[in-house]
Amino acid sequence: MPIASTKNSTSPVILIAIVTLGLIAGYFYYNQALQDQALPIQPISIPAEDKLAKFKDLKLNFSSVDDLNFKVLRIFGESPVQPGSTGRVDIFAPF
Fold it and tell me: How many other β-carbons are positioned within 10 Å of the β-carbon of residue 86?
């Protein structure tokens, strides 16, 4: 007994109506959602005094460089580091 094939075809008018209703519903949803989140932002108060004036006569203290503990430090190993050959030549090789 052969099975009759049923053709499921949707009219383009119905598809266009569904897309149009979705766009309209999305517009109203986002219009209302964004309207509730819009809060007034108050500007921060900026003091009138100059904060950079304290750096005008800046004195740096390098006395820690003259310390004996600092002068005893030694370099261990090679500096700068010389990179060696690492890894495989062919990364897709089966071995």
Answer: 5
Residue pointed to by tokens 């990179």 = 83
Alpha-carbon Rg for the chain, nearest whole angstrom, is 37
Q: Tell me the pLDDT tens digit for each residue of 33-84.
A: 766 565 677 888 877 787 788 888 888 888 888 888 888 888 787 777 777 7
64 in Cβ contact with 70 (< 8 Å)? yes
CA end-to-end span of the chain? 59
Whole-prediction pTM value?
A: 0.31
Taking CA atoms, 83 is separated from 60, 78, 80, in Å, by 37, 11, 9
